[in-house]
Amino acid sequence: MLLGLAVGDSLGNTSESMTPEDRGWRFGEIRDYLPHPFHGDARGYPSDDTQIAAWTLEHLLEEGCIEPECLAERFAGSHIFGIGRTVRQFLRNLGQGLAWSECGPDSAGNGALMRIAPVLLPHLTTGTPALWADVVLAAALTHNNRASTSACLAYTAMLWELLGMEAPPPASWWVTRYVKLAADLEGEGPLPPRGGADPQWRGPLWRFVAEKVPRALDEKRDARAACDTWHSGAFLLETVPSLLFILSRYAHDPEEAIVRAVNDTRDNDTIAALVGAAVGALHGASRLPARWQEALSGCTRQGDEGHYQRLVGEAFRRFGPVEGTGGSATRRN
After folding, report:
1. Structural domain count of the chain
2. Which of these, 289, 281, 294, lies nearest to 262 by C-alpha position?
3. What are the average pLDDT values for consecutive 10-residue runs of the chain, which has 333 residues?
């Protein structure tokens, strides 16, 4: 799960925010790391997706649960690569002396969802309801928005279930499960689209997913055509449908799922990180291409190469399966 997140992010990082058409014209189909404009070599360097997920994991290894004030200070303590607008405002609010509970803007961007996966790790062997409190605290810290928090809760629950699956779920599972988990949590608050083919649509994220993704699957659109329909950017009304469409179509093939996210979406580093975490949880590290794992730099700050892999190893030792535990969700790393 953690390796899939970092691999997907790093594969998309060097062509983030391009349209799929422009990206294809410039690079062709991306199936490996591109030369990084700052580092120069074609290795896996992270964006803020991996970086802030790693810092969340560091926090959990130290504290064992989400302590919002401490996590806020950690986010403020180092340079964030490619920082998003909402997190920038969160840091500005924090710097002005506001309490952590008042710092998170009301934003339906994908910046909380992209880093939420590590939050489930301390709870793998206990399965207590404290997991959901930790998810809410971690998400609302920077994105105090009901659509964002419900998406984080639903995605975390799905990751938990994927960790225990012996085989990929049916294609219909992804949308059905998300909607069932998210609908009551999100409610009916409307999210107007920023772009895409239906700019007049109004409604909550879960209903957009329930209406638009099955239709695109039934019409047998490819990933690029489907994701272009709802724009596939950093807004949750774009990110979550793209994530669920790609997983519905390609989750049985982890490499192709990540490749499609990298090539066929606009906010491709985040969508590929989310897809990567899901297929990593489902299939295990052995199904992620070795060339991607071997070329992953593992940086989370300047000069700490390999730190991410060390964190993953420490997390597995700390939170992974122990002799005598019977939970199916503890089988993989």
Report:
1. 1
2. 289
3. 98 95 97 90 94 97 96 93 91 96 96 97 90 98 97 98 96 98 95 84 96 97 96 96 98 98 98 98 97 96 94 94 48 40
